[in-house]
User: Fold these one by one.
Assistant:
Number 1:
Amino acid sequence: MKVCVVGGGLCGLTAAYRLSEYFELDLYEKNTVPGGLLSSYPRSGYQIERYYHHCFSGDRRLLSLMEALGISDYLEWLKGTTGYYVDGRIHPLNTPLEILRYPHLSLADKVRLGLLTLRSKDLDTSELDEIPAKQYVVEHIGEKAYTAFFEPLLRSKFGAQSDEVSAAWLISRIAIRSDRGVSGERLGYLRGGFHHLIDSLVSKLDDAGCGIHTGVPVTRMTRDGDAWLVNGQAYDAVLSTIAPHDLALLPGAPAAPRIPYQGAACMTLGLGREVTDGIYWLNISGDAPYGAVISHTCFVPPEYYGEHIVYLASYFRDTPPAGLGDRMLSDFYRRFDVPPGMIHWHELAVGRSAGPVYTTGYRRLMPDYERHGLFMAGMFSPPNYPERSMEGAVVAADEVTELMKKRLADG
Ligand SMILES: Cc1cc2nc3c(=O)[nH]c(=O)nc-3n(C[C@H](O)[C@H](O)[C@H](O)COP(=O)(O)OP(=O)(O)OC[C@H]3O[C@@H](n4cnc5c(N)ncnc54)[C@H](O)[C@@H]3O)c2cc1C
């Protein structure tokens, strides 16, 4: 039997790896390099992800995939600190003392926020799916807590669409992220970069004789009796891992569910000094062309790279604002007092299908793994709720491939 996988991101590559044991396989990836959102820039002497990445100790399937691929020895657990930039000042927000000292929330707001965090694990989020996060926070913690704390966070994650995000998403996220010790959380990173994961999958697929066609977009997909024709080639089954709205553009493809998506623009800079007072993840409050500054080398030692690496992160709907890259750079120079001469290099990555927006009613929209005879899995699948992630990509790949094996054995 011959199977086609559309999309060479982590989900498509993992699914192909699982399926390659049972079927003849072709994988199509429109970009010239595999990895999708987890692909990397090759720099001289090292590789760095186009979009900042870390994993969590609870990412069970991702960690066991790394084990199976023989790359677990690269895994390091490092301290990932967070902070808030407000009115020209950086506020670390990791320990209870730092939170108590944070001046932009009253003590009463902090107590209400703490109580909500404690309750978040016991709340039934299915009842919150139709309620906007803003309404929920204002009702339970207060207007000030929303504008001073949650609104900038939501904006850094969802840009202009943040008002549409559901309380179910917010509470699920708080519940997941509140499992940290008093001195902050340990996050996982593969020494040398997550390209090890992508490279190992590609190498296993090469060994299994799988055809990996990079730089080849799927442009047509039609049903031909029991078979599928993909770019004119016949297959017994097709797994699409691309965004449903991208699938819907392919002539002949079956109707795809309408999942709200956003794009991401991520500026990566190599520079001569550290800029965020040692903080890894700095959310930016106020008017800036990016919502967060992620100092990769405040997480992974700069000695691995011979320079500091910083990401400026921003999300957009449909298309990125004109001149975004230039505005990010000039704001960064001014805000962090960095002379342009200190920047060694910079690259802007723009992904139009960077992840779903978890709007009210989102849970109803998530599609099954099989629709109209086509298999579908990816960032829109249930394992990626309430947050699309590497773990979600691996779990979705595992679940859809189990179903495919069963269906193809039956059929
Ligand atoms: C800014 C950012 C930061 C992130 N940080 C983290 C993190 O710290 N930790 C974490 O766990 N997760 C993180 N993620 C999420 C993680 O990267 C994704 O969940 C995961 O990589 C998604 O994999 P995927 O294969 O489902 O999708 P994708 O990586 O999007 O793969 C889909 C692939 O399909 C290809 N494609 C599209 N159309 C076609 C076509 N017509 N023909 C052929 N190929 C096509 C695309 O080029 C792409 O390579 C982050 C994501 C972003 C955007």
Note: Residues 6-12, 28-31, 36-38, 51-55, 217-218, 241-242, 246, 264, 266, 313, 351, 354-355, 378-379, 388-393 surround flavin-adenine dinucleotide (CB under 6 Å).
Number 2:
Amino acid sequence: MHIFYSRRRIDNMSCVAKTAIAISLGLFLSSAWAGGKFTPEQLKAQFYYDLGPSEIDVSGYPKDQQENYKVFKRTCSQCHTLARPVNNPLIQRADWDLYVSRMHVRTKVRPGTSISRKDARRVLNFLTYDSKMRKIDHKADFEAKTKELLKLFEEVKKERLRMQIEQDKKKIKESAPYTGTP
Ligand code: HEC
């Protein structure tokens, strides 16, 4: 950069100004890209299934399952997003039953949350029906989406590591004594 500037006759200010603008625009765009690669929500993902959609199109489901879906939405979004159960690979009712019980135990240590026995049953009915629809009857679709989410999760983890390293570097710089050498 220095060589580039010194070779130039500085009487051509507008050209220098243009270059400066181009450089700062480039820096701005690259920093915007780095920051905007993933949303803060995505960066917080604990499981790959947290990265998928947090709703289900139930317009083709029977009326009672549409009602159960409302209960599921209300019950299972109290502590994490609905994406967690929506994109989870569980299928069998017995498996879901274990998870719903586990979530019920969680409500005991998290003030302000609850899962009633009646709601748990409706959630279980919904999850069993929905798992059949999306994960058995449309197995290939669901598997393709799962693959995408797994790949995305790997990228998110890499980005988190990159951010962590950057932060650690900053900390080291801040704590290093000033020695006068650049
Ligand atoms: C009281 C808070 C709370 C509520 C309510 C809750 N969850 Fe969770 N859920 C958690 C926590 C905490 C975790 C992560 C730790 C774990 O796996 O237990 C979790 C994890 C999960 C997982 C991933 C578990 C794994 O290890 O893969 C699934 C699936 C899940 N929840 C489904 C549900 C469903 C379905 C409901 C509604 C019935 C629900 N959750 C309601 C707190 C809650």
Note: The pocket of heme C is lined by residues 47, 75-76, 78-80, 84-85, 88, 99-100, 102-103, 106-107, 110, 113, 115, 123 (CB under 6 Å).
